[in-house]
Amino acid sequence: MKTIRHHFFMVCMLLLAINTNAQNTVGTLTYNDGTFEGYNLLYPLNQGNIYLINNCGQIVNQWTDESDSIIPGSAAYLLEDGRLLRCNSFGFTANPIFPAGGAADVIEIRDWDNSLLWSFTLSNDTARLHHDVTMLPNGNILMLVWDLKTTEEAIQAGRDPATIGQEAIWADRIIEVEPIGTDDYNIVWEWQIWDHLIQDFDETKDNYGVIAEHPELVNINYHDGTGDADWLHTNSLDYNTFNSQIILSAPSLGEIWIIDHTTSTEEAATHAGGWSGKGGDLMFRWGNPETYGAGTPDDKKLFFQHDVRIMDLELTGDPNYGKIMVFNNRNGGGTYSSVHIINPLFDGCTWNFVSNADGMFFPDDFDWSYSYDPPTQMYSNILSSAQRLSNGNTLICSGFQGWMFEITPDEEVVWEYKNPFIVGNPVDQGTSSSFPGISSVFQLKRYSPSYPAFEGRDLEEGDYIEGNPNPIAPCGGIGINDITESNCHIYPNPTSQYLHINNQDELIQDIVIYHLNGTIIHEAKPNSTNYQLAIQQWATGVYYVRINNNRLQKILIH
Question: What dihedral do alpha carbons 351, 352, 357, 362 form, nearest 10°?
């Protein structure tokens, strides 16, 4: 006969197994105390739908793609008035002149109910939208554009012809677009990197100079060695409302850039004007000082970074407000990823950023850093995002892995989610979650319940994205950590022979019993206040009983 001590040991071991929440493979994997409550804007790659999901993974709103083609997802943002700002694409290779990841041919604004309010398209033989957008306080939209520069233009700008390749050069441009009506617009401001170049390769060209003496300019011959036309691959765009500054990520150079937006378009094409007095030159650059002759390879801090953001969302009282957060993709020669906060030194008197005696911009190092334990478990060579939440937690999206999680200041993982799409199609719960590259996500953003967009909205919990969802999902501890207090008695517990169910309040109309992995083991409709079930042949383990579709209660069968 098994002893009471043996039964107690079995209960302890099985309860430990419950707390791992290992029964889910996609969707919400972990949801513990300390999670920042809110709604997550999820835009998986290789499909066109955008989902607003709660922390359980249930859909509370959805913006459905209306086209017949598969449209890769990239950036999307929920605006304070409930509208959605999104990037669409005809497909990475749809434009043969600019066949690259991050293409965003169409920028749309849709209302909460998915009605199209405004649309802007730019994809032709000389230019293509890409990667990211940001809405300005005045309602205008900043957009990233690839501009084609011919081989002749690149050589005239001092580029080494041996590094041009067959596709010439793509130069980045930022345009500020004023939406008009449903499909009209004005371009009210623009900035071009082509106006702010320097080189020391060809002394016959006008932009020839000493690179170390001009940190405000970009060396057209500094690149990652691939010779790709997309030599900068600018992949994120953000705006500092307080300082009227634009922040950019130039991952192929391993740099963060900041430029002045108080300039006119004419000033932005020069080296003077605006509050900074620098025109459209770089006010700040950080991550790889070797690009401007102020450091060595050992000084490089950023490695093909993504999602460079000003920390301003709901954080005005936070000591990190105004700092920069970044996802650092390719650390350790491409073995692990990390997340960092950077605190630039800005002089409000001169309206410029401060550099040290060696010409490198402050800070000397990261203000805060995080890597997973072990570090190599979080590695995304492309994509990805990071967001500091207003309770001090950090939301991280390891995009290539399709893996999202939230950590506390003590680096405890309190929420975890796996993208339930494979190549743009939702999969059933239980499908292997080890499919990096085909279940990727560009970024994930969370909005608090107090976010103005949700005022007066129907946020009723809907379906899960994944098929065959697990009813024992780790959602707020339901059915995982607590036995429901009610007048329904299930006994004995633990048990090995029979299970008795007695409900004093009402007839038992429905009984469903699940295994820990979510599989339905038994169903019945007794229409009685009492029910008895023989379970001698059931495997030892933890099971859950749901009575009349109420909350789950757990039992141990030994």
Answer: 120
Global pTM reads: 0.84
Claim to verify: residue 526 and residue 417 sit in the same structural domain = no
Q: Which two tokens stand for residue 121?
A: 């398209």
pLDDT given for residue 266 in this prediction: 98
Task: Provide the residue range defining the domain that includes 197.
Answer: 24-159+167-454
Lowest-pLDDT choice from 282-296, 297-311, 492-506: 492-506
pLDDT on residue 321: 84
pLDDT per position as a tens digit, 252-279: 999 999 999 999 999 999 999 999 999 9
Q: Which positions ≥6 away from 237 have C-beta within 8 Å? A: 131, 132, 133, 134, 142, 143, 144, 174, 246, 247, 248
Pair (225, 173) in one structural domain:
yes
Strand partners, 507: none
Place of tokens 């997802």: 73
Q: Is residue 470 a part of any domain in this protein?
A: no
Give the count of domains, the chain.
2
Are β-strands 218-219 and 236-240 bridged in parallel, bridged antiparallel, or unpaired?
unpaired
- Rounded CA-CA distance 105/102 in Å is 10
